[in-house]
Amino acid sequence: MLDIRGSRKFPFFLIVFLGPAVICYTLFMIYPLAESLVLSFFAVQPDNSYVFAGFANFVKLFTDSDTAPRFWGALKNNLLFFIIHMLVQNPIGLLLASLLVTKGKARGFYRTVLFMPTVLSVVIIGFIWQLILNPLWGVAESMLKAVGLGNLFQPWLGLPEYALPTVALISVWQFIGIPMILFYTALIGIPDELIEAAVVDGCTEAQAFWHVKFPLILPTIGIVSILTFVGNFNAFDLIYTMKGAFAGPAYSTDIMGTLFYRTFFGQQLQLGNPTMGATVATMMFLIILTGVLIYMFLFQRRVKTYQL
Amino acid sequence: MKLRASKASRDAIRNRFRGLLKHLILMLFSLIAIFPIFLILMNSFKLKKYIFAAPFALPNAKTFSLIGYNTVFQRSNLIVNFGNSIIVTLVSLFFILLFGSMAAFALSGYKFRGNAFLGFYLSIGIMIPIRLGTVSILKLMASLGLVNSLVGLILIYIAQGLPLTIFILTSFMSQIPDELKDAGRIDGASEYRIYSLILPLVRPALGAIGIFTMIPIWNDLWFPLIVAPNAKTATITLGVQQFLGQYVSDWNAVLSALVLAMVPVLLLYLLFSRQMIRSVTAGAIKA
After folding, report:
1. What ipTM was assigned to the predicted interfaces of this complex?
2. What is the DSSP string of chain B?
Protein backbone atom coordinates (compact mmCIF):
# COMPACT_ATOMS: atom_id res chain seq x y z
CA MET A 1 0.00 0.00 0.00
CA LEU A 2 1.41 3.32 -1.07
CA ASP A 3 1.47 5.73 1.86
CA ILE A 4 0.55 9.21 0.69
CA ARG A 5 -0.72 10.64 3.94
CA GLY A 6 2.28 12.96 4.06
CA SER A 7 1.66 14.71 0.76
CA ARG A 8 0.33 18.23 1.14
CA LYS A 9 -2.30 18.01 -1.55
CA PHE A 10 -4.85 15.23 -2.09
CA PRO A 11 -3.43 13.62 -5.24
CA PHE A 12 -5.46 14.27 -8.37
CA PHE A 13 -5.39 10.65 -9.55
CA LEU A 14 -7.19 9.55 -6.36
CA ILE A 15 -10.00 11.96 -7.19
CA VAL A 16 -10.20 10.40 -10.66
CA PHE A 17 -10.35 6.87 -9.21
CA LEU A 18 -12.81 7.58 -6.40
CA GLY A 19 -14.84 10.40 -7.88
CA PRO A 20 -17.28 8.59 -10.19
CA ALA A 21 -18.19 5.91 -7.63
CA VAL A 22 -18.52 8.32 -4.72
CA ILE A 23 -20.59 10.84 -6.70
CA CYS A 24 -22.94 8.27 -8.20
CA TYR A 25 -23.40 6.42 -4.92
CA THR A 26 -23.89 9.60 -2.89
CA LEU A 27 -26.28 11.22 -5.32
CA PHE A 28 -28.53 8.24 -6.06
CA MET A 29 -28.29 6.22 -2.87
CA ILE A 30 -27.11 8.06 0.24
CA TYR A 31 -28.78 11.38 -0.53
CA PRO A 32 -32.21 9.81 -1.30
CA LEU A 33 -31.98 7.60 1.80
CA ALA A 34 -31.12 10.59 3.98
CA GLU A 35 -33.76 12.80 2.38
CA SER A 36 -36.39 10.11 2.88
CA LEU A 37 -35.58 10.02 6.59
CA VAL A 38 -35.94 13.81 6.70
CA LEU A 39 -39.17 13.82 4.67
CA SER A 40 -40.82 11.58 7.23
CA PHE A 41 -40.92 14.62 9.54
CA PHE A 42 -42.76 16.75 6.97
CA ALA A 43 -46.34 16.98 5.75
CA VAL A 44 -47.52 17.75 2.22
CA GLN A 45 -49.63 20.89 1.87
CA PRO A 46 -52.49 21.10 -0.67
CA ASP A 47 -50.23 23.25 -2.90
CA ASN A 48 -47.64 20.41 -2.87
CA SER A 49 -45.20 22.25 -0.63
CA TYR A 50 -43.70 20.56 2.42
CA VAL A 51 -44.06 21.82 5.94
CA PHE A 52 -42.34 20.56 9.07
CA ALA A 53 -44.68 18.35 11.10
CA GLY A 54 -42.51 16.82 13.84
CA PHE A 55 -43.54 13.29 14.72
CA ALA A 56 -47.09 13.72 13.42
CA ASN A 57 -46.62 11.18 10.60
CA PHE A 58 -45.32 8.57 13.01
CA VAL A 59 -48.11 9.21 15.50
CA LYS A 60 -50.61 8.84 12.65
CA LEU A 61 -48.96 5.64 11.40
CA PHE A 62 -49.02 4.05 14.87
CA THR A 63 -52.38 5.24 16.19
CA ASP A 64 -54.73 6.48 13.45
CA SER A 65 -57.76 4.20 13.12
CA ASP A 66 -57.19 3.88 9.33
CA THR A 67 -53.44 3.52 9.06
CA ALA A 68 -52.46 1.88 12.36
CA PRO A 69 -54.15 -1.50 11.67
CA ARG A 70 -52.41 -1.58 8.27
CA PHE A 71 -49.00 -0.79 9.78
CA TRP A 72 -49.18 -3.25 12.67
CA GLY A 73 -50.74 -5.84 10.40
CA ALA A 74 -47.96 -5.48 7.81
CA LEU A 75 -45.32 -5.64 10.53
CA LYS A 76 -46.84 -8.80 12.02
CA ASN A 77 -47.18 -10.43 8.59
CA ASN A 78 -43.62 -9.49 7.72
CA LEU A 79 -42.33 -11.07 10.93
CA LEU A 80 -44.24 -14.25 10.16
CA PHE A 81 -42.87 -14.14 6.59
CA PHE A 82 -39.34 -13.94 8.05
CA ILE A 83 -39.94 -16.69 10.64
CA ILE A 84 -41.17 -19.07 7.94
CA HIS A 85 -38.01 -18.40 5.94
CA MET A 86 -35.80 -18.99 8.97
CA LEU A 87 -37.58 -22.21 9.93
CA VAL A 88 -37.99 -23.71 6.47
CA GLN A 89 -35.62 -22.13 3.95
CA ASN A 90 -32.42 -22.01 5.95
CA PRO A 91 -32.53 -25.47 7.61
CA ILE A 92 -33.40 -27.11 4.27
CA GLY A 93 -30.65 -25.04 2.64
CA LEU A 94 -28.20 -26.40 5.20
CA LEU A 95 -29.46 -29.95 4.74
CA LEU A 96 -29.06 -29.76 0.97
CA ALA A 97 -25.61 -28.18 1.27
CA SER A 98 -24.41 -30.90 3.63
CA LEU A 99 -25.73 -33.58 1.28
CA LEU A 100 -24.06 -31.90 -1.70
CA VAL A 101 -20.69 -31.80 0.03
CA THR A 102 -20.54 -35.55 0.43
CA LYS A 103 -21.90 -36.58 -2.95
CA GLY A 104 -19.39 -37.01 -5.73
CA LYS A 105 -20.48 -37.45 -9.31
CA ALA A 106 -23.96 -35.94 -9.56
CA ARG A 107 -23.03 -32.98 -7.38
CA GLY A 108 -22.81 -30.47 -10.21
CA PHE A 109 -26.17 -31.53 -11.60
CA TYR A 110 -28.01 -31.21 -8.28
CA ARG A 111 -26.35 -27.88 -7.54
CA THR A 112 -27.35 -26.44 -10.90
CA VAL A 113 -30.95 -27.65 -10.68
CA LEU A 114 -31.49 -26.62 -7.05
CA PHE A 115 -30.18 -23.11 -7.69
CA MET A 116 -32.23 -22.64 -10.87
CA PRO A 117 -35.40 -21.02 -9.45
CA THR A 118 -33.22 -18.45 -7.69
CA VAL A 119 -32.04 -16.85 -10.94
CA LEU A 120 -35.57 -16.36 -12.29
CA SER A 121 -37.52 -13.18 -11.74
CA VAL A 122 -39.94 -13.14 -8.82
CA VAL A 123 -42.67 -12.04 -11.22
CA ILE A 124 -42.31 -15.25 -13.24
CA ILE A 125 -42.20 -17.41 -10.12
CA GLY A 126 -45.27 -15.69 -8.71
CA PHE A 127 -47.28 -16.35 -11.86
CA ILE A 128 -46.11 -19.93 -12.22
CA TRP A 129 -47.32 -20.75 -8.72
CA GLN A 130 -50.51 -18.82 -9.18
CA LEU A 131 -51.30 -21.05 -12.14
CA ILE A 132 -50.30 -24.24 -10.35
CA LEU A 133 -52.38 -23.45 -7.27
CA ASN A 134 -55.33 -22.22 -9.37
CA PRO A 135 -58.31 -24.54 -8.71
CA LEU A 136 -59.42 -23.93 -12.32
CA TRP A 137 -56.37 -25.72 -13.66
CA GLY A 138 -56.42 -28.19 -10.80
CA VAL A 139 -52.79 -29.22 -11.16
CA ALA A 140 -51.98 -28.94 -7.47
CA GLU A 141 -55.13 -30.81 -6.53
CA SER A 142 -54.50 -33.73 -8.86
CA MET A 143 -50.89 -33.95 -7.66
CA LEU A 144 -52.07 -34.15 -4.05
CA LYS A 145 -54.65 -36.76 -5.08
CA ALA A 146 -51.90 -38.83 -6.66
CA VAL A 147 -50.25 -39.19 -3.26
CA GLY A 148 -53.58 -39.71 -1.48
CA LEU A 149 -53.81 -36.24 0.02
CA GLY A 150 -56.50 -34.88 -2.28
CA ASN A 151 -58.68 -33.82 0.66
CA LEU A 152 -56.02 -31.39 1.80
CA PHE A 153 -56.36 -29.19 -1.26
CA GLN A 154 -57.86 -25.77 -0.78
CA PRO A 155 -57.58 -22.54 -2.76
CA TRP A 156 -54.87 -21.46 -0.32
CA LEU A 157 -54.06 -18.16 -2.01
CA GLY A 158 -57.65 -17.02 -1.57
CA LEU A 159 -58.02 -17.89 2.10
CA PRO A 160 -56.90 -15.23 4.60
CA GLU A 161 -55.50 -17.75 7.08
CA TYR A 162 -53.46 -19.64 4.45
CA ALA A 163 -52.45 -16.96 1.93
CA LEU A 164 -49.42 -15.59 3.75
CA PRO A 165 -47.80 -18.94 4.63
CA THR A 166 -48.43 -20.05 1.03
CA VAL A 167 -46.73 -16.99 -0.44
CA ALA A 168 -43.88 -17.35 2.07
CA LEU A 169 -43.34 -20.98 1.07
CA ILE A 170 -43.27 -20.00 -2.61
CA SER A 171 -40.56 -17.46 -1.74
CA VAL A 172 -38.72 -20.19 0.17
CA TRP A 173 -39.00 -22.47 -2.87
CA GLN A 174 -37.43 -19.79 -5.03
CA PHE A 175 -34.61 -18.61 -2.78
CA ILE A 176 -33.50 -21.85 -1.17
CA GLY A 177 -30.49 -21.78 -3.50
CA ILE A 178 -28.91 -18.85 -1.68
CA PRO A 179 -28.50 -20.38 1.80
CA MET A 180 -27.65 -23.67 0.10
CA ILE A 181 -24.77 -22.21 -1.86
CA LEU A 182 -23.48 -20.14 1.07
CA PHE A 183 -23.55 -23.15 3.42
CA TYR A 184 -22.02 -25.30 0.71
CA THR A 185 -19.18 -22.80 0.33
CA ALA A 186 -18.56 -22.78 4.07
CA LEU A 187 -18.68 -26.58 4.31
CA ILE A 188 -16.21 -27.26 1.50
CA GLY A 189 -13.87 -24.79 3.18
CA ILE A 190 -13.54 -27.13 6.19
CA PRO A 191 -10.44 -29.30 5.82
CA ASP A 192 -11.17 -33.04 5.42
CA GLU A 193 -8.49 -33.87 8.03
CA LEU A 194 -10.65 -32.31 10.71
CA ILE A 195 -13.55 -34.64 9.93
CA GLU A 196 -11.27 -37.64 9.49
CA ALA A 197 -9.69 -36.96 12.86
CA ALA A 198 -13.11 -36.82 14.46
CA VAL A 199 -14.16 -40.07 12.81
CA VAL A 200 -10.93 -41.79 13.88
CA ASP A 201 -11.68 -40.64 17.40
CA GLY A 202 -14.97 -42.55 17.17
CA CYS A 203 -17.43 -39.90 16.03
CA THR A 204 -20.32 -40.99 13.86
CA GLU A 205 -21.00 -38.95 10.74
CA ALA A 206 -23.83 -37.10 12.47
CA GLN A 207 -21.69 -36.35 15.52
CA ALA A 208 -18.88 -35.09 13.32
CA PHE A 209 -21.35 -32.76 11.64
CA TRP A 210 -22.84 -31.30 14.81
CA HIS A 211 -19.64 -31.10 16.87
CA VAL A 212 -17.05 -30.23 14.24
CA LYS A 213 -18.68 -28.70 11.19
CA PHE A 214 -21.61 -26.89 12.75
CA PRO A 215 -19.56 -24.62 15.05
CA LEU A 216 -17.32 -23.79 12.08
CA ILE A 217 -20.24 -22.65 9.93
CA LEU A 218 -21.79 -20.47 12.64
CA PRO A 219 -20.54 -17.29 10.92
CA THR A 220 -22.34 -18.40 7.75
CA ILE A 221 -25.51 -18.98 9.74
CA GLY A 222 -25.19 -15.36 10.85
CA ILE A 223 -24.71 -14.13 7.29
CA VAL A 224 -27.61 -16.21 5.97
CA SER A 225 -29.86 -14.95 8.78
CA ILE A 226 -29.11 -11.30 8.19
CA LEU A 227 -29.44 -11.65 4.41
CA THR A 228 -32.81 -13.35 4.94
CA PHE A 229 -33.89 -10.62 7.34
CA VAL A 230 -32.95 -7.73 5.05
CA GLY A 231 -34.40 -9.49 2.01
CA ASN A 232 -37.69 -10.30 3.74
CA PHE A 233 -38.25 -6.84 5.18
CA ASN A 234 -37.53 -5.37 1.76
CA ALA A 235 -39.71 -7.87 -0.15
CA PHE A 236 -42.42 -6.60 -2.46
CA ASP A 237 -42.36 -8.16 -5.94
CA LEU A 238 -43.84 -11.55 -5.08
CA ILE A 239 -46.82 -10.23 -3.11
CA TYR A 240 -47.44 -7.48 -5.66
CA THR A 241 -47.39 -10.02 -8.50
CA MET A 242 -49.58 -12.61 -6.81
CA LYS A 243 -51.93 -10.51 -4.73
CA GLY A 244 -51.63 -6.97 -6.13
CA ALA A 245 -50.99 -3.76 -4.19
CA PHE A 246 -53.84 -4.55 -1.82
CA ALA A 247 -52.14 -7.74 -0.67
CA GLY A 248 -55.41 -9.60 -0.27
CA PRO A 249 -57.46 -11.38 0.77
CA ALA A 250 -58.35 -8.78 3.42
CA TYR A 251 -54.73 -7.53 3.65
CA SER A 252 -53.67 -10.93 4.93
CA THR A 253 -50.50 -10.95 2.79
CA ASP A 254 -49.68 -7.27 3.35
CA ILE A 255 -46.03 -6.74 4.30
CA MET A 256 -43.91 -3.61 4.73
CA GLY A 257 -43.00 -3.40 1.03
CA THR A 258 -46.60 -3.44 -0.20
CA LEU A 259 -47.65 -1.04 2.57
CA PHE A 260 -44.86 1.32 1.48
CA TYR A 261 -45.94 1.13 -2.16
CA ARG A 262 -49.63 1.75 -1.36
CA THR A 263 -48.90 4.59 1.04
CA PHE A 264 -46.55 6.29 -1.40
CA PHE A 265 -48.57 5.78 -4.60
CA GLY A 266 -52.05 5.64 -3.22
CA GLN A 267 -54.82 3.18 -3.81
CA GLN A 268 -58.22 3.35 -5.43
CA LEU A 269 -59.94 5.52 -2.84
CA GLN A 270 -56.99 7.32 -1.37
CA LEU A 271 -54.32 9.53 -2.92
CA GLY A 272 -50.68 8.68 -2.48
CA ASN A 273 -48.75 10.59 0.13
CA PRO A 274 -44.98 10.99 -0.33
CA THR A 275 -44.20 11.98 3.23
CA MET A 276 -46.31 9.18 4.74
CA GLY A 277 -44.52 6.90 2.27
CA ALA A 278 -41.22 8.23 3.57
CA THR A 279 -42.46 7.52 7.11
CA VAL A 280 -43.11 3.88 6.25
CA ALA A 281 -39.68 3.73 4.57
CA THR A 282 -38.11 5.19 7.71
CA MET A 283 -39.72 2.47 9.82
CA MET A 284 -38.38 -0.16 7.40
CA PHE A 285 -34.98 1.49 7.66
CA LEU A 286 -35.07 1.33 11.47
CA ILE A 287 -36.20 -2.31 11.44
CA ILE A 288 -33.44 -3.32 9.01
CA LEU A 289 -30.87 -1.26 10.92
CA THR A 290 -31.85 -2.99 14.17
CA GLY A 291 -31.36 -6.36 12.49
CA VAL A 292 -27.98 -5.35 11.11
CA LEU A 293 -26.83 -4.01 14.48
CA ILE A 294 -27.89 -7.20 16.28
CA TYR A 295 -25.99 -9.18 13.67
CA MET A 296 -22.88 -7.00 14.05
CA PHE A 297 -23.05 -7.31 17.81
CA LEU A 298 -23.34 -11.11 17.68
CA PHE A 299 -20.97 -11.83 14.82
CA GLN A 300 -18.76 -8.76 14.57
CA ARG A 301 -15.43 -10.42 15.25
CA ARG A 302 -16.07 -12.97 12.53
CA VAL A 303 -17.23 -10.45 9.96
CA LYS A 304 -13.74 -9.32 9.16
CA THR A 305 -12.47 -12.75 8.28
CA TYR A 306 -15.58 -13.70 6.37
CA GLN A 307 -16.70 -11.94 3.26
CA LEU A 308 -19.30 -12.62 0.55
CA MET B 1 -12.12 -62.55 13.10
CA LYS B 2 -15.48 -63.58 11.76
CA LEU B 3 -17.16 -60.97 13.89
CA ARG B 4 -15.00 -58.20 12.50
CA ALA B 5 -15.72 -59.23 8.93
CA SER B 6 -19.45 -59.13 9.48
CA LYS B 7 -19.16 -55.73 11.10
CA ALA B 8 -17.26 -54.46 8.08
CA SER B 9 -19.92 -55.75 5.71
CA ARG B 10 -22.63 -54.29 7.89
CA ASP B 11 -20.87 -50.93 7.69
CA ALA B 12 -20.62 -51.25 3.93
CA ILE B 13 -24.35 -51.92 3.65
CA ARG B 14 -25.11 -49.04 5.96
CA ASN B 15 -22.92 -46.68 3.93
CA ARG B 16 -24.54 -47.78 0.73
CA PHE B 17 -27.98 -47.26 2.21
CA ARG B 18 -26.97 -43.86 3.47
CA GLY B 19 -25.60 -42.87 0.05
CA LEU B 20 -28.84 -43.96 -1.56
CA LEU B 21 -30.87 -41.96 0.94
CA LYS B 22 -28.81 -38.84 0.21
CA HIS B 23 -29.41 -39.29 -3.50
CA LEU B 24 -33.11 -39.73 -2.91
CA ILE B 25 -33.40 -36.55 -0.86
CA LEU B 26 -31.42 -34.53 -3.39
CA MET B 27 -33.46 -35.98 -6.24
CA LEU B 28 -36.73 -35.18 -4.49
CA PHE B 29 -35.74 -31.56 -3.94
CA SER B 30 -34.40 -31.25 -7.48
CA LEU B 31 -37.74 -32.50 -8.75
CA ILE B 32 -39.57 -29.95 -6.61
CA ALA B 33 -37.31 -27.22 -7.97
CA ILE B 34 -37.61 -28.11 -11.63
CA PHE B 35 -41.11 -29.54 -12.04
CA PRO B 36 -43.11 -26.26 -11.89
CA ILE B 37 -40.82 -24.76 -14.54
CA PHE B 38 -41.10 -27.85 -16.69
CA LEU B 39 -44.89 -27.96 -16.35
CA ILE B 40 -45.22 -24.40 -17.65
CA LEU B 41 -42.82 -25.06 -20.53
CA MET B 42 -44.63 -28.22 -21.57
CA ASN B 43 -48.13 -26.78 -21.48
CA SER B 44 -47.18 -23.62 -23.38
CA PHE B 45 -47.02 -25.80 -26.52
CA LYS B 46 -50.51 -27.26 -26.19
CA LEU B 47 -54.01 -26.35 -27.30
CA LYS B 48 -56.04 -24.82 -24.51
CA LYS B 49 -58.32 -27.84 -24.31
CA TYR B 50 -55.39 -30.11 -23.54
CA ILE B 51 -53.77 -27.74 -21.07
CA PHE B 52 -56.78 -28.49 -18.92
CA ALA B 53 -57.56 -32.03 -20.00
CA ALA B 54 -54.05 -33.45 -19.67
CA PRO B 55 -51.72 -30.99 -17.93
CA PHE B 56 -49.13 -33.65 -17.15
CA ALA B 57 -48.80 -35.02 -20.68
CA LEU B 58 -46.08 -33.97 -23.08
CA PRO B 59 -47.37 -32.16 -26.17
CA ASN B 60 -47.88 -34.46 -29.16
CA ALA B 61 -49.00 -34.04 -32.76
CA LYS B 62 -52.63 -33.83 -31.71
CA THR B 63 -52.22 -31.40 -28.83
CA PHE B 64 -49.37 -29.23 -30.16
CA SER B 65 -50.06 -25.57 -30.76
CA LEU B 66 -48.15 -22.30 -30.96
CA ILE B 67 -51.21 -20.13 -30.59
CA GLY B 68 -50.02 -18.67 -27.29
CA TYR B 69 -46.73 -17.59 -28.82
CA ASN B 70 -48.60 -15.97 -31.71
CA THR B 71 -50.68 -13.94 -29.30
CA VAL B 72 -47.61 -12.84 -27.38
CA PHE B 73 -45.75 -11.75 -30.50
CA GLN B 74 -48.74 -9.91 -31.93
CA ARG B 75 -50.12 -8.27 -28.81
CA SER B 76 -47.16 -7.62 -26.57
CA ASN B 77 -44.18 -5.36 -26.47
CA LEU B 78 -41.88 -8.10 -25.27
CA ILE B 79 -39.29 -7.50 -28.00
CA VAL B 80 -39.00 -3.83 -27.02
CA ASN B 81 -38.97 -4.87 -23.35
CA PHE B 82 -36.13 -7.28 -24.03
CA GLY B 83 -34.15 -4.55 -25.74
CA ASN B 84 -34.68 -2.20 -22.80
CA SER B 85 -33.62 -4.82 -20.29
CA ILE B 86 -30.51 -5.67 -22.26
CA ILE B 87 -29.49 -2.00 -22.54
CA VAL B 88 -30.20 -1.24 -18.88
CA THR B 89 -28.47 -4.35 -17.58
CA LEU B 90 -25.35 -4.17 -19.73
CA VAL B 91 -24.75 -0.43 -19.39
CA SER B 92 -25.29 -0.56 -15.61
CA LEU B 93 -23.03 -3.55 -15.33
CA PHE B 94 -20.26 -1.87 -17.33
CA PHE B 95 -20.24 1.22 -15.13
CA ILE B 96 -20.59 -0.76 -11.89
CA LEU B 97 -17.50 -2.75 -12.78
CA LEU B 98 -15.56 0.28 -14.08
CA PHE B 99 -16.34 2.72 -11.25
CA GLY B 100 -16.26 -0.06 -8.66
CA SER B 101 -12.85 -1.36 -9.70
CA MET B 102 -11.42 2.16 -9.84
CA ALA B 103 -12.64 2.94 -6.32
CA ALA B 104 -11.50 -0.45 -5.02
CA PHE B 105 -8.07 0.14 -6.57
CA ALA B 106 -7.76 3.45 -4.75
CA LEU B 107 -9.01 2.06 -1.44
CA SER B 108 -6.74 -0.99 -1.53
CA GLY B 109 -3.67 0.65 -3.06
CA TYR B 110 -3.09 3.85 -1.12
CA LYS B 111 -2.95 4.96 2.48
CA PHE B 112 -4.59 8.36 2.51
CA ARG B 113 -6.46 10.42 5.03
CA GLY B 114 -10.08 9.26 5.18
CA ASN B 115 -9.44 5.86 3.59
CA ALA B 116 -11.09 3.86 6.37
CA PHE B 117 -14.01 6.24 6.61
CA LEU B 118 -14.58 6.13 2.84
CA GLY B 119 -14.50 2.34 2.91
CA PHE B 120 -17.15 2.32 5.62
CA TYR B 121 -19.23 4.99 3.88
CA LEU B 122 -19.24 3.04 0.63
CA SER B 123 -20.27 -0.17 2.41
CA ILE B 124 -23.44 1.22 4.03
CA GLY B 125 -25.37 0.33 0.90
CA ILE B 126 -24.55 -3.36 1.20
CA MET B 127 -27.08 -3.82 3.97
CA ILE B 128 -29.44 -0.86 3.56
CA PRO B 129 -31.65 -1.42 0.50
CA ILE B 130 -31.78 1.45 -1.99
CA ARG B 131 -35.57 0.97 -2.24
CA LEU B 132 -36.04 2.75 1.06
CA GLY B 133 -34.98 5.97 -0.67
CA THR B 134 -37.59 5.60 -3.41
CA VAL B 135 -39.66 8.65 -2.44
CA SER B 136 -36.63 10.90 -2.90
CA ILE B 137 -35.31 9.02 -5.89
CA LEU B 138 -38.55 9.68 -7.76
CA LYS B 139 -38.40 13.36 -6.74
CA LEU B 140 -34.79 13.54 -7.91
CA MET B 141 -35.56 11.82 -11.20
CA ALA B 142 -38.48 14.17 -11.81
CA SER B 143 -36.29 17.22 -11.25
CA LEU B 144 -33.59 15.81 -13.55
CA GLY B 145 -36.19 15.00 -16.21
CA LEU B 146 -35.27 11.32 -16.05
CA VAL B 147 -38.67 9.81 -15.28
CA ASN B 148 -39.55 7.22 -17.92
CA SER B 149 -36.02 7.10 -19.22
CA LEU B 150 -33.56 4.24 -19.28
CA VAL B 151 -30.80 6.62 -18.12
CA GLY B 152 -32.64 7.14 -14.84
CA LEU B 153 -32.90 3.40 -14.25
CA ILE B 154 -29.24 2.91 -15.13
CA LEU B 155 -28.11 5.57 -12.64
CA ILE B 156 -30.13 3.92 -9.87
CA TYR B 157 -28.74 0.47 -10.65
CA ILE B 158 -25.16 1.76 -10.74
CA ALA B 159 -25.62 3.24 -7.27
CA GLN B 160 -27.25 0.01 -6.11
CA GLY B 161 -24.49 -2.23 -7.45
CA LEU B 162 -21.46 -0.23 -6.35
CA PRO B 163 -21.27 -0.95 -2.57
CA LEU B 164 -20.93 -4.75 -2.74
CA THR B 165 -18.71 -4.54 -5.84
CA ILE B 166 -16.30 -2.15 -4.14
CA PHE B 167 -16.30 -4.21 -0.94
CA ILE B 168 -15.44 -7.48 -2.67
CA LEU B 169 -12.97 -6.01 -5.17
CA THR B 170 -11.12 -4.14 -2.41
CA SER B 171 -10.53 -7.41 -0.58
CA PHE B 172 -9.36 -9.08 -3.80
CA MET B 173 -7.10 -6.22 -4.82
CA SER B 174 -5.45 -5.92 -1.43
CA GLN B 175 -4.18 -9.48 -1.89
CA ILE B 176 -2.13 -8.44 -4.90
CA PRO B 177 1.47 -8.02 -3.73
CA ASP B 178 2.73 -4.45 -3.51
CA GLU B 179 5.97 -5.44 -5.27
CA LEU B 180 4.04 -5.77 -8.50
CA LYS B 181 2.83 -2.20 -8.35
CA ASP B 182 6.18 -0.90 -7.12
CA ALA B 183 7.95 -2.57 -10.04
CA GLY B 184 5.61 -0.72 -12.35
CA ARG B 185 6.30 2.56 -10.61
CA ILE B 186 10.04 2.07 -10.90
CA ASP B 187 9.56 1.54 -14.63
CA GLY B 188 7.87 4.92 -14.73
CA ALA B 189 4.27 3.74 -15.10
CA SER B 190 1.59 6.22 -14.07
CA GLU B 191 -0.97 5.27 -11.41
CA TYR B 192 -3.57 4.95 -14.19
CA ARG B 193 -1.31 2.51 -16.02
CA ILE B 194 -0.86 0.48 -12.84
CA TYR B 195 -4.65 0.27 -12.46
CA SER B 196 -4.91 -1.13 -15.98
CA LEU B 197 -2.21 -3.70 -15.13
CA ILE B 198 -3.97 -4.79 -11.92
CA LEU B 199 -7.43 -5.12 -13.45
CA PRO B 200 -6.79 -8.35 -15.42
CA LEU B 201 -5.49 -9.97 -12.23
CA VAL B 202 -8.93 -9.78 -10.59
CA ARG B 203 -10.81 -10.97 -13.66
CA PRO B 204 -12.37 -14.01 -11.92
CA ALA B 205 -13.78 -11.75 -9.22
CA LEU B 206 -15.11 -9.35 -11.86
CA GLY B 207 -16.86 -12.26 -13.54
CA ALA B 208 -18.54 -13.47 -10.36
CA ILE B 209 -19.58 -9.97 -9.33
CA GLY B 210 -20.83 -9.33 -12.84
CA ILE B 211 -23.17 -12.29 -12.81
CA PHE B 212 -24.47 -11.60 -9.34
CA THR B 213 -25.09 -7.92 -10.05
CA MET B 214 -26.78 -8.67 -13.35
CA ILE B 215 -29.48 -11.00 -12.05
CA PRO B 216 -31.19 -8.57 -9.63
CA ILE B 217 -31.05 -5.76 -12.20
CA TRP B 218 -32.61 -7.92 -14.90
CA ASN B 219 -35.27 -9.23 -12.51
CA ASP B 220 -36.12 -5.96 -10.77
CA LEU B 221 -39.76 -4.94 -10.78
CA TRP B 222 -39.76 -2.08 -8.25
CA PHE B 223 -37.82 0.66 -10.03
CA PRO B 224 -39.20 0.07 -13.54
CA LEU B 225 -42.68 0.15 -12.00
CA ILE B 226 -42.05 3.42 -10.19
CA VAL B 227 -39.48 5.33 -12.23
CA ALA B 228 -40.02 4.07 -15.80
CA PRO B 229 -43.51 2.53 -16.18
CA ASN B 230 -44.00 3.87 -19.72
CA ALA B 231 -44.55 1.22 -22.40
CA LYS B 232 -41.51 2.52 -24.31
CA THR B 233 -39.15 2.16 -21.36
CA ALA B 234 -40.63 -0.88 -19.60
CA THR B 235 -38.13 -3.64 -18.95
CA ILE B 236 -38.92 -7.29 -19.53
CA THR B 237 -39.90 -7.96 -15.93
CA LEU B 238 -42.38 -5.08 -15.90
CA GLY B 239 -43.54 -5.86 -19.45
CA VAL B 240 -44.29 -9.48 -18.57
CA GLN B 241 -46.02 -8.43 -15.37
CA GLN B 242 -48.32 -6.06 -17.26
CA PHE B 243 -48.96 -8.47 -20.12
CA LEU B 244 -49.84 -11.28 -17.74
CA GLY B 245 -52.16 -8.98 -15.83
CA GLN B 246 -54.05 -8.09 -19.04
CA TYR B 247 -54.23 -11.56 -20.54
CA VAL B 248 -54.79 -13.41 -17.29
CA SER B 249 -57.65 -15.48 -18.73
CA ASP B 250 -55.81 -16.40 -21.95
CA TRP B 251 -53.94 -19.43 -20.68
CA ASN B 252 -52.01 -20.03 -23.90
CA ALA B 253 -50.74 -16.47 -23.95
CA VAL B 254 -49.87 -16.48 -20.25
CA LEU B 255 -47.91 -19.72 -20.45
CA SER B 256 -46.06 -18.61 -23.59
CA ALA B 257 -45.17 -15.22 -22.13
CA LEU B 258 -43.80 -16.93 -19.02
CA VAL B 259 -41.67 -19.24 -21.15
CA LEU B 260 -40.37 -16.40 -23.32
CA ALA B 261 -39.40 -14.44 -20.23
CA MET B 262 -37.72 -17.43 -18.60
CA VAL B 263 -35.81 -18.96 -21.46
CA PRO B 264 -33.05 -16.37 -22.00
CA VAL B 265 -32.21 -16.27 -18.30
CA LEU B 266 -32.28 -20.05 -18.01
CA LEU B 267 -30.07 -20.50 -21.07
CA LEU B 268 -27.53 -18.01 -19.74
CA TYR B 269 -27.66 -19.70 -16.37
CA LEU B 270 -27.18 -23.19 -17.79
CA LEU B 271 -24.25 -21.95 -19.89
CA PHE B 272 -22.51 -20.23 -17.00
CA SER B 273 -23.77 -22.03 -13.90
CA ARG B 274 -20.58 -24.00 -13.42
CA GLN B 275 -18.32 -20.96 -13.58
CA MET B 276 -20.81 -18.96 -11.57
CA ILE B 277 -21.00 -21.35 -8.64
CA ARG B 278 -17.31 -22.15 -8.83
CA SER B 279 -16.40 -18.48 -8.71
CA VAL B 280 -18.57 -17.94 -5.64
CA THR B 281 -17.02 -20.82 -3.81
CA ALA B 282 -13.50 -19.93 -4.91
CA GLY B 283 -14.06 -16.25 -4.14
CA ALA B 284 -15.38 -16.93 -0.68
CA ILE B 285 -12.49 -19.20 0.20
CA LYS B 286 -9.99 -16.62 -1.00
CA ALA B 287 -11.68 -13.74 0.81
Report:
1. 0.89
2. -HHHHHHHHHHHHHHHHHHHHHHHHHHHHHHHHHHHHHHHHHHTTB-HHHHHH-TTSPP-TTTB--HHHHHHHHH--HHHHHHHHHHHHHHHHHHHHHHHHHHHHHHHHEE-TTHHHHHHHHHHHHHS-GGGGHHHHHHHHHHHT-TT-HHHHHHHHHHHHHHHHHHHHHHHHTTS-HHHHHHHHHTT--HHHHHHHHGGGGHHHHHHHHHHHHHHHHH--HHHHHH--STTT--HHHHHHHHHHHTTT-HHHHHHHHHHHHHHHHHHHHHHHHHHHHHHHHHHHH-
